[in-house]
Design a protein that fits this description.
CATH superfamily: P-loop containing nucleotide triphosphate hydrolases
Number of domains: 1
CATH class: Alpha Beta
Strand order of the largest sheet: 6-7-8-3-9-10
Distance between the termini: 22 Å
Number of strands: 10
Bound molecules: adenosine-5'-triphosphate
Structural class: alpha/beta
Strand content: 25-35%
Number of helices: 7
Order of helices and strands: EEEHEEHEHHHEHEHEE
Largest sheet: 6 strands, mixed
Helix content: 25-40%
Radius of gyration: 17 Å
CATH architecture: 3-Layer(aba) Sandwich
Shape: globular
């Protein structure tokens, strides 16, 4: 799905060679400041390598239009944006940006269940807690139904139990719909339990790559 060759980004990322497989769950672990967020920004073409190349389905990202790429690849950042308006508006906004048909309330309620958000669609999104906002943003991404999900610490603001439930929902969704998930996580346990492959980063380099328990 992705192949990196001699990728350097400023003095932050140095990756000689890395392959990320389609329809698999890849977790990225590693120390704070190790370059995890920067790596997924590179995969989403939010930033471009200073040197080297990233191939997406064997085509250089330099030759792929960003708008075209975002139809297939959606990134959820560590501090996801919440916009003025209701929970409903905030769930629908991703579909609007990607020029997809809007969903009706029953679909939105289904998604809210998946992300364990027990709120009304009419609630003011800005009044939600940090963890609830994170779940709205995750619901927004799942509603967009991209082929590839790039999630940066999607459960960082959640308590342990909610985190476990949500990661299970997301990974079940990814598996049943044959999607590719690339997820930054601080949790070795999540990586071990859900990843097909685990990449560990430090100081901008991939220091370890191994298969997760679910495949081992
Ligand atoms: N645009 C930028 N310009 C300069 N330095 C940057 C930029 N973005 C990130 N950095 C630096 O690059 C390093 C890697 O940052 P990155 O956010 O990728 O780390 P991370 O592994 O995701 O960390 P964390 O787990 O704390 O979120 C950090 O030292 C950071 O300060």
């Amino acid at each position: 799905m992705y192949r990196l060759e001699n990728v350097k980004y400023k003095d932050i990322i140095y990756i000689e060679s890395l392959e990320i497989l389609p329809q698999k769950i890849t977790c990225i672990l590693g120390e704070s400041g190790g370059g995890k967020t920067t790596l997924i920004k590179l995969l989403n073409k939010m930033i471009s390598p200073t040197s080297g190349d990233i191939f997406y389905k064997e085509k250089s990202l330099r030759k792929i239009d960003s708008v075209e790429l975002r139809r297939e690849v959606v990134m959820l950042s560590q501090s996801p944006g919440i916009f003025p308006g209701s929970v409903r508006d905030n769930l629908l906004i991703g579909l609007k940006f990607s020029e997809k048909d809007p969903a009706d309330d029953s679909e939105l309620v289904e998604i809210m269940k998946k992300v364990h958000l027990y709120k009304s669609l009419d609630d003011v999104a800005e009044n939600l807690s940090g963890g609830e906002k994170q779940r709205v943003a995750l619901g927004r991404v799942m509603l967009m139904d991209p082929k590839i999900l790039l999630l940066d610490e999607p459960s960082s603001a959640l308590d342990e139990k909610t985190e476990k439930n949500i990661i299970k929902e997301v990974t079940d969704y990814v598996k049943t719909k044959n999607k590719t998930l690339i997820m930054v996580t601080h949790s070795k346990e999540i990586a071990r339990d859900h990843a097909d492959e685990i990449i560990e980063m430090a100081q901008g380099r991939v220091i370890d790559k191994k298969v997760g328990d679910r495949n081992g």
